[in-house]
Amino acid sequence: MKLRKWQEDGLRKFLGTNNDFLAVATPGAGKTTFAVQAAKAMIDRGEIANIIVIVPTAHLRGQWAKSASRAGIKLDSNFVNRNQQVARDFDGVVATYQSVAASPLLWRKLACDSRRPTLVVLDEVHHAGDAEHLAWGTAMAEAFGDAYRRLSLSGTPFRSDQKPIPFLNYDAARRVVPDVNYDYGMALQDQEVVRPVAFPAMDGEARWRFASEHPVSQKLSETDPSTIAAALKAALDPAGDWIPSVLVRAHEELELMRMDKPDCGGLVVATDQASAHAYADILRRQTGERVDIAVSDDPAASKVIEGYGKSDSRWLVAVQMVSEGVDIPRIGVIVYATRIRTEMFFRQVVGRCVRKQGDEDDMCARVFIPSISQLLGFAASIERTVDAVLADEESKVRRATGDGDGAERALPRIPEVIGSSTAAHAFTINGGDAFDEAELLHARRLGQQAGLPPGTEPSAIARLLRLTGTSAKPGAAPEPQVDLTHSERKKEVRNLIKRKVGQLSRMTRRPHSHIHGDLNRAFSERSIDQATFETLTERLVILDRWIEDA
Questions:
Q1: Which of 269, 339, 341, 351 is the most exposed place for a label (fewest CB within 10 A)?
Q2: What is the DSSP letter of 194?
């Protein structure tokens, strides 16, 4: 089997040491192949007689067994704890972290038999550091502490702010130190491994209210840490206008891409089962064809994913089933329609569409995201190195959210969703740069004139124009200067004041009317409608100071 350079270098390094080993490689880079070849080399050298692979989900058991079989390694993917022993005609077993946590002493017996030296492969090992999975780390230490060799894998840069994960090395900042690191930026440079990704950021207005309070209306792009969760819930509500319009836009992009690649597929990542089924209904009405749904609680979910991967159907809607490890290279469009806001999960989802299908695959994948600050930051940094992401973006999210990981937290109060507006395309992020709608429309027209395939990502054309020093909008007439009347100028300032009053109200929990009353008294005016242009601008200065002090 021909290995990529990072795999060859990593394999040489792994076989040259007897220490615990961690390989971090971007989704699509071939972590499973690397581990299978490491196991095969150890078998050929007579170092091991048994292999145990531990994975986070049941679906990955079958996927691992198939990959190993191509190298002549037979892994039992149906083993359950009550079996107690693995059949003699297998070279080893693949099981889940849950199984090990349920019976660590059994797995210690399976892994630590001195007569059968064992290689333990811990796939997507970062899960053992999740707050809700801390028991996994404890079980791993108990079960595999005396195994002959341990090889850990991850497709996501990560750190542990909880109990350290067994068998990994940490630096002074508690970041995990990998033995091999092959990130997305390196893979993109190699060209043969992953696709480039563009991130259309979709804005729009979300409306909600809390019990006994006035309704709140806010654009996604204007949300702050106190309103992001409620705004996302409103925007992702299938009864509103935002998410249906995003799905329509994503389907239009998918149809363009299928003109070049007829089996190109789309994935919608939903928050829960109810939303998943509602999104599938919307897409079904849009496409006129069946839409596959895979949810973690459905025993048939793995078969649904496998069937979708082999078909040429357009859409798959999933909940907690395709965040990592699932191999569906034909996916070219993703709609990020979940309220989860951690960088780890975001990168795992993006990883579902970056795997290339052969040397002829020159497609640029699209990931449609809500236009909120956290996701925009993750998208802009997706091509940076692991160290830069951990040192820079994690600290940004920590400061922006007040918590360590940007995770969805239980809301102290449940917002009542009122509705949402149709989504508006704010801009697209490609290669860390943002391109507005005007640039993209012009770039698409240039691409058509040049005879480029219809599915060519317009942000890639716009980026090329920028890099070559060519204006993205050559010959475009300057926008006409509009002379506003005095009344129109005052109306604009009043609208801005109302938005700032709304922001201050959300921060202080004071009613809008009380804040407006304070402003009226400060200028001896009966209402904002009686204010002069001068006092309106002074109100803005006072509001900025109050917001800063809140």
A1: 339
A2: B
CA-to-CA distance for 97 and 194, rounded, in angstroms? 28
Nearest to 228, CA basis, from 403, 347, 435: 403
CA–CA distances in Å: residue 120 to residues 52, 127, 221: 5, 16, 46
pTM, to two decimals: 0.57
Specify whether the CB–CB gap between 188 and 194 falls below 8 A: yes
Return the SS3 of 349. helix
Strands 331-337 and 424-430: unpaired
Residue type, 398: R
Q: How far apart are CA 166 and CA 365, in angstroms?
A: 36
Strand bridging mode 180-182 / 416-420: unpaired
The C-alpha atoms of residue 268 and residue 270 are separated, in whole angstroms, by: 6
Q: Can you say whether the dihedral through the CA atoms of 331, 334, 338, 342 is positive or negative? A: positive
Residue 184 tokens, joined = 């997305």
DSSP label at residue 335: E
Phi, then psi, of 37 in degrees rounded to 5 = -70, -35
Calculate Rg over the CA atoms of the chain: 26
For 105, other C-beta atoms within 10 Å of its C-beta total 10
Query: Where would I find the H helices in 450-524?
Result: 458-467, 486-508, 512-522
Residues near 278 by Cβ (< 8 Å), separated by ≥ 6?
238, 239
| pLDDT reading at 137 higher than 60 | yes
Q: Give the pLDDT confidence of 77-86 residue by residue, as tens digits.
A: 999 999 999 9
Token digits of residue 454: 């219809």
For residue 306, count CB atoms less than 10 angstroms from its CB and return exposed for 0-12, middle for 13-18, buried for 19 or more: middle
pLDDT digits (tens, 9 = 90+) for 312-357: 889 999 887 655 556 678 888 999 999 988 877 888 788 777 777 6
Output phi, psi for 420, to 5 deg.
-155, 155
pLDDT tens digits for 279-315?
999 999 988 888 989 887 677 777 888 888 888 889 9
- Alpha-carbon span 57 to 36, nearest angstrom: 18
Is 507 strand, coil or helix?
helix
Which DSSP state fits 215?
Answer: -
Distance (Å, whole) CA 102 – CA 481: 70
> What is the SS3 assignment for 316?
strand
> How many helices (H) and strands (E) in the chain?
20, 18
Give the C-alpha separation, 293 to 267, whole Å. Answer: 10
Is residue 186 within 8 A of residue 6, CB to CB? The reply is: yes
Residue 347 per-residue DSSP state:
H
Would you say 481 and 283 are in contact if contact means Cβ atoms under 8 Å apart? no
Strands 331-337 and 265-270: parallel
Do residues 140 and 147 make contact, with C-beta atoms less than 8 angstroms apart?
A: no
Which has the closest alpha carbon to 329: 359, 296, 354?
354
Please give the backbone phi and psi of residue 96, each rounded to the nearest 5 degrees, phi first.
Answer: -100, 160
Q: Contact at 8 Å (CB) between 122 and 128?
A: yes
Phi first, then psi, for residue 216 (nearest 5°) are -115, 135
Residues sharing a CB contact under 8 Å with residue 523, sequence separation 6 or more, in sequence order: 531, 535, 538, 539
Q: What is the enclosing helix (H) or strand (E) of 14?
A: helix 5-15
